[in-house]
Amino acid sequence: MDDQARIMQSIGGVSLAGHSVQGGMALPPPHGHDGTDGDGRKQDIGDILHQIMTITDQSLDEAQAKKHGLNCHRMKPALFSVLCEIKEKTGLSIRGAQEEDPPDPQLMRLDNMLLAEGVAGPEKGGGSAAAAAAAAASGGAADNSIEHSDYRAKLTQIRQIYHTELEKYEQACNEFTTHVMNLLREQSRTRPISPKEIERMVGIIHRKFSSIQMQLKQSTCEAVMILRSRFLDARRKRRNFSKQATEILNEYFYSHLSNPYPSEEAKEELAKKCSITVSQVSNWFGNKRIRYKKNIGKFQEEANLYAAKTAVNAAHAAAAAVQNSQANSPTTPNSGSSGSFNLPNSGDMFLSMQSLNGDSYQGAQVGANVQSQVDTLRHVISQTAGYNDALGGNAMYSPHGLNANGGWQDATTPSSVISPTEGPGSVQSDTSN
DNA sequence: TTCGATGATTTCTA
DNA sequence: TAGAAATCATCGAA
Questions:
Q1: How far apart are CA A429 and CA A87, in angstroms?
Q2: Domain PBC: where (predicted)?
């Protein structure tokens, strides 16, 4: 029987983890032996194994001394090789089951979401894209910009916490990995630990830490989702438009009552003037049309007010234009551009002014009529608490813009439409009473 | 706290 | 796709 076989026998004799060691092993020749003293070697191996098995029962100093003795033992390299082979074989079967984990789809989803929200990946304005999308959905302007910046600030906060925690985890992971590797390297001198095994151990540690990271990512995603939903919910938190904005919108509405459908350009202009968005202008006109139609009586007073207001403005503009016209070319009052009305609110107003006396305005006649209207209106405004009182039951405006079907008449047929901005004419006759 | 006003959203239609 | 109509949700005055 050769050395190898004898070692096998001995190992088998102590039931070393029940492993049967097969295959050729290149065992180094035992120190100081020529391979003939079989009983002596058997005794040696028996001693070594006995020492190994009883090492836990010994005191630390004693064990250290024994350990040193074992390390120096002539049979140590042979036993070490056997253990290495056993470990290699058992390790392979374990590795086979554990290696090459497919990427976790949940982790991928989390990563993608964090990237999309601007939490993970390079700094790109703290998820400004997401915030902008949400802001666009909300259609807000000034107020939303506040909410937008608030959203960004909170997202930046989440991003900072996420990165700090991630860094902490990575640092802890690296420290722990280094520590374990050092320990394993240290231990590899006394027990068989292959570099592959160390690698595997590192992999296990990394997997453990990435599961912790996943929890962090999950929590971050939840935080972002909550923030996002709160931000989007804020869309419903409306704020009333400023008084000025409402006035501008109302002026347009009542001066275009025959066809209160502003064009895209007009909407943009109004949005600009009112510091709101085009969609808010659209909403406002949508609401206004519906509510006006539903309760015309209720809006009568408002209509009167705005009609008068528009009339005053128009009259001012007209008077100024006439004055200019007269100053520039007294002999030809209606020559050039100054002869025609350049009203701030064109459309109905222009039409109503044209039809004020049945004919279109010309030259000095315009000046006289308009000035008279202005004076009358000024008088009414100064003498009365409000148009309603002054006008009594004689409404200066009646909602002729609506047709029998409840819809607005087509703006392309203004001749059949009596605009509310006929106000000046009506006012003149009404107040003259 | 109530209630009307009002901005926003949703659903439907032409 | 714009607009009508219904509805929701909030604001703000009483």
A1: 111
A2: 40-233
